[in-house]
Amino acid sequence: MFYYLLKYVLLGPLLRLVFRPRIEGLEHVPSEGAAIIAGNHLSFSDHFLMPAILKRRITFLAKAEYFTGPGLKGRLTAFFFRSAGQIPVDRSGKDAGQAAIREGLGVLSKDELLGIYPEGTRSHDGRLYKGKVGVAVMALKAGVPVIPCAMIGTFEAQPPGKVIPNIHPVVIRFGEPLDFSRYEGMENEKAILRAITDEIMYAILSLSEQEYVDRYAAVVKAEEAAAPKERKFRRMPLS
Questions:
Q1: What is the DSSP string of 29-96?
Q2: Lowest mean pLDDT among 27-36, 81-90, 114-123, 150-159
Q3: Which residues, including other chains, have CB under 8 Å from residue 124's CB and lie 6 or more apart?
Q4: Distance of CA 6 to CAs 27, 49, 74, 166, Å?
Q5: Which of 19, 40, 75, 83 has the most CB within a 10 Å radius?
Q6: Residue 48 pLDDT > 60
Q7: pLDDT at 91
Q8: Which helix (H) or strand (E) holds 146?
Q9: Is there a contact between 131 and 19 (Cβ–Cβ < 8 Å)?
């Protein structure tokens, strides 16, 4: 109930007024039945802009940190995300990927739309990074199409660390559904999962026209965060 209050009364009209998003390819999103919408992830705003413009309800897998913050702010954030239909997923530990897959399959089993960001985290520099194979596993196990989606302009509207968004034009572009039924029953084949995921990422890349990096975003973020520390403690040569 609160999901639709946010969508049609509290948040949706405000987002459409501020960002004035241009929607392309909305006809590719099925009007009924289960499907995965796989998109790039450039901004915190992505979680709310797509639900605001879709006619159907969509559920996203969101990082658990949004639901576990301390104090009043943390409780309000958790309430907001749950009310908006987001599902917390713990991304730490070896079983994190399996937990996300179980949650996603639960959404698809109810013939609903599942939103997922195959990169696994927001892009910190506006580039598109290598996708994780969980999206392929869910597509095969649920037997559902994958609709690629590109968010364009949201990085400039709300780059990492910025709380109040800038006024910047935004485009939300959907591509034709990708059918992977030819791989039915092969969800345990690593090479197949990698090929499917790469096909999905290429479709997103074609829509977004971003620069592509064939590495995981989380790894690149960690390396860049550690680099200044390494320089700081680098030993000077003896004279």
A1: S-SSS-EEEEE----TTHHHHHHHH-SS-EEEEEEGGGGS--HHHHHHHHHHHHHTT-EEE--SSTTH
A2: 81-90
A3: 160, 217, 220, 221, 224
A4: 24, 12, 19, 21
A5: 40
A6: yes
A7: 62
A8: strand 146-152
A9: no
d(CA 158, CA 49): 12
CA Rg, the chain, in Å? 19
Closest to 205 (Cα-Cα) out of 53, 50, 38: 38
Residue bearing tokens 């199409």 = 145
Per the structure block, which two tokens stand in for 53? 């413009």
Listed as own residue / partner, the contacts of 105-109 with beta carbons closer than 8 Å and 24 or more positions apart are 105/138, 105/141, 105/142, 107/34, 107/59, 108/34, 108/36, 108/138, 108/142, 108/144, 109/34, 109/142
Handedness of CA 170, 30, 67, 224 (dihedral sign): negative
Contact 116, 37 (CB under 8 A): yes
Distance CA 35, CA 177 (A): 9
Q: What's the rounded Cα separation, in Å, for the pair 187 and 197?
A: 12
Instruction: Quickly count: other Cβ atoms within 10 Å of residue 207's Cβ.
Output: 22
Residues 6+ apart with CB under 8 A from 16: 52, 53
Q: Would you give the DSSP letter of residue 121?
A: S
Separation between Cα atoms, residue 126 and residue 123, nearest integer Å? 6
